[in-house]
Amino acid sequence: MSIQLSKVEKHFGNYHALRDISLAVEAGELIALLGPSGSGKTSLLRIIAGLESLDSGEILFDDTNVLTLSAKQRNIGFVFQHYALFNHMTVAENIAYGLKVRTRKNRPSKQQIEEKVAELLQLVKLDHLATRYPTQLSGGQRQRVALARALAVEPKVLLLDEPFGALDAKVRKDLRRWLRNLHNDFPITSIFVTHDQEEALDVADRIVIMNEGKIEQIGTPTEVYEHPASPFVYNFLGNVNLFKGRLHQGTLQNGDFSLQLPGYEEVQIEETVGYTRPHDLLISKQKIPDTVTALVTHIHPIGAVVHLELNRIDTNEFLEVEIPQEYFRNLEITKGETVYIKPKQMKVFVEDYVI
Ligand SMILES: Nc1ncnc2c1ncn2[C@@H]1O[C@H](COP(=O)(O)OP(=O)(O)OP(=O)(O)O)[C@@H](O)[C@H]1O
């Protein structure tokens, strides 16, 4: 089932919570709604589900306008951050619940329900825990039961609101891999809300980045990470170094250094900002032309890479560099040492859009 949102608007009183939201989700896609707290992710999810009304705009499931359909009629599976399982029912009973409460006419036979539950238990890898109660499960296991329960009624669309938000980092990581694999085997159109960049980048086919009720960018994880469409996206997705300066005839002049920026020859801005990722900064112990001089203030080895925190001598600004462990060892950099930094590449946004 594909989903098409067009020009969706929503106010809560005077507060403009969703602004001109248009989005096309293809059948079988796994989409992440990513953004800071209050950016409108949950409101958008609830509007798609039919749990919240909208002021104006259109929502199509395939070619059907669903605005007049209730949440139930939209045939949506919902998984929330806090596993809303029934504690007095076993895992198997929880999963069967949605089928058992159907009207007699639509209810599968007892045997069909049992088969469906067994199939879902296998899918979420909990067959050995079918007779346990929710209180006897870990948080991660409970979320898998919640997902199996949502899938039992064979929804056309699956909506997940911070499904792993209440779990610790390791379990979260395992579960998001598991969700990715599950989705590969069982490609139901799914939209999940998260404020965790890594989770969105790791799991989603495409990411919708939201800020203050607007969509900032829609793209694959690689597109949004490698080609952020706005300063907001650049800052929000990963670490970034800012180089304030003057852009003139294709050169960014900043403190003690200047950098040629191909593609920006026609642009002149007195005060702008260049954005560079930590792994796009060159670091050297020898002074080379057009470099920034900085002091190494912290060294954090993290697995195969080393993060270095630096303080620029000329502007006193903070910089972050990321280099492979092996390269770091060869350089023999120590804390307190003076080093020279040069961006390999930099992005400048003109009127909020990258050239
Ligand atoms: N029922 C409501 N009544 C009034 N304001 C609301 C209501 N629901 C949401 N809002 C406001 O709309 C804005 C967007 O909220 P929403 O929950 O959609 O954001 P979010 O991106 O999901 O945030 P979070 O990550 O914190 O859950 C917030 O400022 C919130 O206070």
Automatic annotation (TrEMBL):
Pull one GO CC term from this UniProt entry: ATP-binding cassette (ABC) transporter complex
Q: Which SUPFAM superfamilies match?
A: MOP-like, P-loop containing nucleoside triphosphate hydrolases
What SMART domains does this protein's entry cite?
Answer: AAA (SM00382)
Query: What keywords is this UniProt entry annotated with?
Result: ATP-binding, Cell membrane, Hydrolase, Membrane, Nucleotide-binding, Sulfate transport, Translocase, Transport
Among the GO molecular function terms of this UniProt record, one is:
ATP hydrolysis activity
Name the Pfam families for this protein: ABC_tran (PF00005), CysA_C_terminal (PF17850), TOBE_3 (PF12857)
The segment(s) forming the ABC transporter domain are 3-237
Gene3D superfamilies attached to this UniProt entry: 2.40.50.100, P-loop containing nucleotide triphosphate hydrolases (3.40.50.300)
Record InterPro entries? AAA+_ATPase, ABC_SmlMolc_Importer, ABC_transporter-like_ATP-bd, ABC_transporter-like_CS, CysA_C, Mo/tungstate-bd_C_term_dom, P-loop_NTPase, Sulph_transpt1
EC no.?
3.6.3.25
Q: Which PROSITE patterns match?
A: ABC_TRANSPORTER_1, ABC_TRANSPORTER_2
By what name is this protein known? Sulfate transport system ATP-binding protein
Gene field: cysA
